[in-house]
Amino acid sequence: MVKGTTIRMWRRSLIALLALVVGGFGTLVYSLVKLQIIQGPDLQMRAAAQQLRDKSLSAKRGTIYDCNMKELAKSATVWDVILAPAVIEEKDRDTIATGLSQILGMDKNEVLERTKKKKSYYEILKTKVESDVRDKILQFEKDHQITSGIDLIENYKRYYPYGKFAATVLGFTGTDSQGLAGVEAQYDSVLTGTNGRLVTAQNAVGKEMGFQYEQEIPAKDGDSLVLTIDEVVQHYVEKYLTEGLANNDVQNRACAIVMNVKTGAILGMAVKGDFDPNNPFVVADSKQAAAIAKITDSKEKSEATQEALNVQWRNKCVSDTYAPGSVFKMVTASAALEENLVTEGTVFPCPGSLTIMGERINDWKTFGSLTFEDGICNSSNVVFMQVGALLGIDRFFKYFNAFGLTEKTGVDLPGESRSIYHPVDQMTALDLAVESFGQSNQITPIQMITACCAVANGGYLVRPHIVEKVVDSGGNIVKTTDASPKRQVISAKTSQRMCAILQKDAMKGTAKSGYIAGYRVAGKTGTSEKRELLPKKEYIASYCGFAPADDPQVAMLVFYDEPHGPNGYYGSPVAGPTFQATMTQILPYLGVEPKYSETELEKLDDKAPDTVGQTVAAAKNTVANAGLTAKVIGGGDKVISQVPEPNKNIPKGGTVVLITDAASAKQTVTVPDMAKLSLSAANEKAAEAGVNISITGAALTSSSAVSAAQDIAAGTKVPPGTVVTVTFSENNQVF
Q1: What is the arithmetic mean of pLDDT over 493-507?
Q2: How far is the C-alpha of 260 from the C-alpha of 498, rounded, in Å?
Q3: Distance in angstroms (rounded) separating the CA atoms of residues 502 and 254
Q4: What is the CATH number of domain 602-729?
Q5: Which pLDDT tens digit goes with each residue over 208-248?
Q6: I want to staple 366 with a disulfide (CB 3.0 to 4.6 A). Which of 305, 352, 588, 653 is the partner?
Q7: Helix, strand, coil shares of the chain as percentages rounded to 5?
Q8: Neighbours of 665 (CB within 10 A)
Q9: Angle 101-199-75 (CA atoms, 0-180°, nearest 5)?
Q10: Which CATH number fits domain 319-538: 3.40.50.150, 3.40.710.10, 3.30.420.40, 3.40.50.720?
C-alpha cells in the first residue's frame, strides 16, 4: 500500500510538474510569439518612435538669375521653431511658454497648451523666422538653462531683391515654397529640390545621443535658372512704361516686351500695375486697396480682394488677347508683297471709306489716292481693305496661320491664352476687310511681337523664350533652350522690303513718335477699339517696331489699355514716346552703333565745354567757340561752376550758365509746363524760364509735332541752364 501510494504520488507530482513546465513554457512561448510576431512590428515602431527622432532637411530652391547672373530671386536661410513637448521638463513649461510667446509674438496660453502634448516630439510653433529671432531664442535658452524641448531647424525663404522688378515674369512662391505664378510656377519642378532626412537616437530620458547614432540623407538643392531677361533692359522698360502709365491716365494696365528678333530671347517684359512678389497677397494698387477696405461684408470683401490679386498677378503680355489694330498691317503687307500682288508703288484709290457687305467702313482721312508704301506710312484702312481683297480669304488666312497667330507661341510662361479668330471656312468679305487692318481677330501681345520679329529677321518665326539655360548647384549646365526658328514664313527679300517701308514710316509717317536719330528705327503704330461690352468706347494704344532697320537686332511692343490722358488714345502720341525713350537707352547699351545722317547731325545735341576755373572773359570765349551762348551769374572774376556741367549734353545754340560766386550757385529757376507746344513755342518758353531743352521724338523729322512729355516735371526748381528733355509726337488720330 505504501509503495503503491508513493509511486502514485510521484506520478501525480511529475504530471503536475510537467503541466507546470509545459504551461509555463507554453505561456512563455506564446508571449514570445505574441511579442515577436503578432505585436512585433507595432512594438518596433513604438520603440523607434521613443528612441529615434526624424527631422526633415529642407532643400534649397534654385536661384533665378538674369542673363548676366544677377540674382532676381533667391532663397535665404531661415529657421522653423519646433517644440518637443515629450522632453520638456515640467518646471520649464511656463518659462518656455512665456519666453517664446514674447519672442514670436504669439499668445502665451496657446504656446503653453502646445507644451503639454507630452507624447509629441514635433510641434511646429512658427516657420521661417529670421536670424534675429533665432538669436533671441538661443539667448533665451542660454539665459534660462533650457537644454531640451526647443529645436531650431534650418529652412529657406524666397526673396526678390529688386521688389516689384519683373514681378509678373518671376511670379512668386507660397508658404510651402511652391511656385504659384510666373517662372516660379512654370519651372517649379526644376527649382524645387528634394528634402533630406536626419535620424537621431535618444536615450531613456529623451536626450539626443552622439553623432555615431545619427543617419543623414542630405537634401538635394534645386537647379537654378538663367533667364534671357537683362536687368538693365528690364529697368528701362519698367521705368518708361510706368511714366507712360501716369502721363496717359491708363485705366487697365500696360505692358511691354523687348525681344531679340533673331533668337526669340525676351530681353525685357513688364506689366504695370503689378505687385511686390515679396508680398504677393497684398493688393498693390492703393486706390483699389482703399476701396476694398471700405467693404463691410466679409464674403464680398474676400471676393473683391481675390479678384484684385488675380488681376495684379496676371501677365498681360501672354494672358490677354486684344485686337492689334494697325500694327497688324505689317503682317498683311508682308503677305501681299510675298504673293507679288503689289509693289511699293502700286496705287490705290482712297475715297475716305469703303462699303463692304452693306457696312460702311471709314478711313481716318480722305487721301484721294496712295501708293502701297504710302498706304502703310499713312496707315490707311481703305488701302488695306483693298490689299486684303487682293489676297482673298484663303491666302490671308494662310499667312495669318504661318505667322503663328492661330496657335500659342509656346513661350515658357504660365497662362498663355489662345487667339480668337474666324476660321477660314467661316470668314466673310466683311471679316476679311476689317481683319486686314487689325480689327476683329484677337491675339496676344507675345504673338504680335513674335510676328513682328518674323517681318524683321528675314522671315523666320522664332520661339519666344524667357529661360536661357538651367544650371545645377555646382554651376554646371543641365539644359540649354533651343533657339532655332519654327519655320520661314516670308522670304528674306520680302523682309528686307518691309524693313525699308517701316523705316520710312518711323521717319516720315504716322510712326514718327518712335524715331531715334542714328538708329534707323522701323515702326508701326496701332489704335484698336475694344469690342467688349463696356459703358463707353475704349481703346488700346500700341507701338511695335524694331531697330536697326538695315540689320534688325531688337524689337519692342508697347501696349496701353484704355488711356484717358491728355494725349488721347491713339498709338502715336500715347505709346510712341515710351518706345522711343526705352529704345534710346537700350540700343546703345546693347552695342548697336548709331549711324547719323547729315540732317540728323545738324540737330544733335552738343557737349558743354569745360569753363570751370577760367576767368569770365576766357570762359565766354570758350563758350562762343563752341557755338553756344554764355550767361554769367554773380560778381566773381572766375567761373566756379557751370550749368550744364562740362561734357553734358546741351542743345545746339544753347545757353551755358557761368556761375562766379557761392551765393549765385544757390539760385534756381522754375521748369515751365511745355505740354502741347510746337518746337519753336517750347524753345521760347524754355528760354523765358532760363532752361535749355533737348528734343527727342517726332520733332527731329516733323514740323507739325507737339510736345508730349518732359523728363523734369513742371514746377520743379532747378539751377539756371538745366537741360530739360522734351519728347515730341504727332497727334495723329490714326487707327
Answers
A1: 97
A2: 18
A3: 24
A4: 3.30.10.20
A5: 544 445 667 888 889 999 999 999 999 999 999 999 999 99
A6: 352
A7: 40, 25, 35
A8: 14
A9: 60
A10: 3.40.710.10
